[in-house]
């Protein structure tokens, strides 16, 4: 199991590593899209694979032993850069960009060919995953973080690939349980609704709220 | 919106394009993992980015205008190669490998650093997405395909990054609704349970079952 860790980073260094990570992950996301959609012949594929192998070898010269984990610092707050939905250095993440308005969270994301389920439509599971992330972040943002206990998703209409908005908010709390709700919307209106229960794990209870946030992270 | 399409492919050509797609997507998955876990300095990152851009440019010489869609042929059956969870040419897909034993579906998948949520654990949303895929496939495999109507996921314990088994089966049908259930298991036992309702879309009703499978695809 990788780590929750605390590290100190200067603002300058943070700006630098953010730019490097975003640039690299952005390039790999473009490659992922090109891989799904390519129609080129075998020679071009073979040449592309040589470049990809060379890039991988360069990046593997020094690697983390496992996943990125979740890191905290006074400068950067929480860095969940490996997160599968929002991680800025994770090419699997679309990524969803989160903004906060009081206790409401809005996630914006442009879902391309790599997020397909039914033909031309966003995979239902990806929509569930974006909602899980947003609902968990809404609970955390409201000061009652937790791991996902249950997630219920209702698909109202098809979600066409393209720009999508995810909204989430804390509905209520009951002891160690936080109840959050949210929606996915497109130009067609609300396409998906969800509610979830987020539970502070046993091993994180009895700590200060700040420490709990540090050790729990999001869904 | 991309397409459901029917195409004819010889067995030899199918074997060839399968190998090409798997090789390319496998290489890009390795690059994704290396991107999340790299610790190298700026010079190596810059050199890697040049290779990645070169690979992308090669693959973009000829591209599909949109997503891969879902393609059918007598030789290959259904090809959902762009699917975000199981698509063999989609580097976002871990991918999950599905096998069928009567009406039970088993999906096996090894979830690395790119699928992280809480530190060292699989993202709850990725688990929901794998279940959505498996439950929808179970309904389809039982002859009652549909788009996801609702998906309810219960997280019983943490799912550590690594090998995971997804099981799914059709529970019952009611008219146009198929009810499926499933679990995620690891060496720790069952970690997640889910049930879902899959609904034959209005525009696919009144067709033969074969045509309905062709036009619906999975979750």
TrEMBL record, chains A, B:
Domain Thioesterase residue range list: 120-191
Membrane topology of this protein: Peripheral membrane protein
Statement: the UniProt record of this protein carries the keyword Cell membrane: yes
Annotated localization: Cell projection, Ruffle membrane; Cytoplasm; Membrane
Keywords carried by this UniProt record: Apoptosis, Cell membrane, Cell projection, Cytoplasm, Fatty acid metabolism, Hydrolase, Lipid metabolism, Membrane, Transit peptide
Any single GO CC term annotated in Swiss-Prot or TrEMBL for this entry: cytoplasm
Reactions the enzyme catalyzes: (9Z)-octadecenoyl-CoA + H2O = (9Z)-octadecenoate + CoA + H(+); (5Z,8Z,11Z,14Z)-eicosatetraenoyl-CoA + H2O = (5Z,8Z,11Z,14Z)-eicosatetraenoate + CoA + H(+); dodecanoyl-CoA + H2O = dodecanoate + CoA + H(+); decanoyl-CoA + H2O = decanoate + CoA + H(+)
Pfam families named in the record: 4HBT
Listed EC numbers: 3.1.2.2
GO process terms (BP): fatty acid metabolic process
GO-annotated molecular function: hydrolase activity
Family (UniProt): Belongs to the THEM4/THEM5 thioesterase family.
Full protein name: Acyl-coenzyme A thioesterase THEM4
Protein's organism: Gordonia hirsuta DSM 44140 = NBRC 16056
């Amino acid at each position: 199991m990788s780590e929750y860790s605390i590290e100190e980073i200067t603002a300058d260094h943070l700006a630098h590593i953010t730019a490097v990570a975003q640039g690299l992950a952005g390039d790999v996301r473009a490659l992922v899209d090109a891989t799904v959609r390519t129609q080129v012949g075998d020679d071009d594929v073979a040449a592309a694979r040589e470049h990809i192998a060379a890039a991988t070898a360069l990046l593997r010269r020094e690697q983390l032993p496992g996943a990125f984990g979740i890191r905290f610092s006074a400068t950067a707050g929480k860095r969940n850069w490996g997160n599968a939905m929002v991680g800025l250095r994770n090419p699997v993440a679309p990524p969803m960009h989160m903004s906060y308005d009081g206790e409401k969270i809005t996630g914006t994301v442009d879902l391309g060919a790599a997020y397909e389920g039914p033909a031309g439509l966003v995979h239902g599971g990806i929509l569930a995953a974006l909602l899980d992330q947003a609902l968990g972040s809404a609970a955390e943002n409201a000061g009652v973080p937790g791991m996902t206990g249950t997630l219920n998703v209702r698909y109202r209409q098809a979600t066409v690939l393209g720009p999508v908005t995810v909204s989430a908010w804390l509905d209520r709390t009951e002891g160690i349980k936080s109840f959050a709700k949210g929606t996915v919307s497109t130009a067609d209106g609300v396409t998906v609704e969800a509610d979830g229960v987020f539970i502070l794990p046993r091993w994180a209870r009895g700590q200060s709220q700040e420490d709990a946030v540090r050790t729990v992270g999001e869904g």
